[in-house]
Amino acid sequence: MALIPPFFLDCVVGIGIINNSKKQWIGTGFLYGNYIEKNTEGQNLYEVFLVTNKHVINDLSKIILRFNPQEDSPAKDYELSLNDQNRFGHPNPKIDVAIIPINTNLLKSEGMKFQFFNSDIHTFNKKQLIDNETTEGDGVFVLGFPMGLIGTDRQHVILRNGCIARIRDLFENRNTDFIVDALVFPGNSGGPVILKPEIINIEGTKVNNKAALIGIIKSYIPYQDTAVSLQTKRPRIIFEDNTGLSLVEPVDHIFETIEHYKKLKMIPTNINNNQQFQYILKK
């Protein structure tokens, strides 16, 4: 019995850099398909984006994306140059969401294994979460590559269990993010947060039987403790620990970032030998 659609795992991508000639995995991203329209054959058309945090990619001129081939062979890395014409952040500087337009035709032609979250099918925005009576205690899955644990031969995402710790501030428009009780580490930044389907519910409340993308991991919430000198009574060292609570940007901020990108009308990005890695994929 699966609680998460297996193809959700294939939406997640490791993000890396080359540091002193060595590959270093620094964060997580995922492929997201923004619905455009139906074509003449009645099939849905999507514009595909790599979604991650601003702080993962903002100061970089080049990143590496890793994908698994369909057959059982080692993963393949793709270099992607970044600039202000292919990297778009949410217009609010406090909202940590960034997108890069992606053309998946190259991945398809080279036999890579990948999927994307469909904006019209696989997501719950804030209004849908409220209508669904989502609340504290509801289960979530957090997908990503903590501490760069991406594997040497194949990319396989790490899934961790958690639950929503506080979300009513978001529903009441008092905060722009929400909190989950899920232990994350450097490398998890930019990873998707999935609402867990449940088969039971308290009488008088709604039951959610659908796994859906509800947000993006932004950071863990740290706890700081200060060591004080016995002689001088002055603080000497500050220790920082991971509380196990993590901040999440809601999926609404992806929608808003894409709308901002559309208004800018910038040119597409390129990947590897000027092959365009952007725009519509028919799924």
Automatic annotation (TrEMBL):
Q: What's a GO biological-process term for it? A: proteolysis
**Which UniProt keywords are listed?**
Hydrolase, Protease
User: InterPro entries per the record?
Assistant: Peptidase_S1_PA, Peptidase_S1C
Name any one GO molecular function.
serine-type endopeptidase activity
Name of the protein in question? Serine protease
What organism does this protein naturally occur in?
Epilithonimonas vandammei
Native organism taxonomy = Bacteria, Pseudomonadati, Bacteroidota, Flavobacteriia, Flavobacteriales
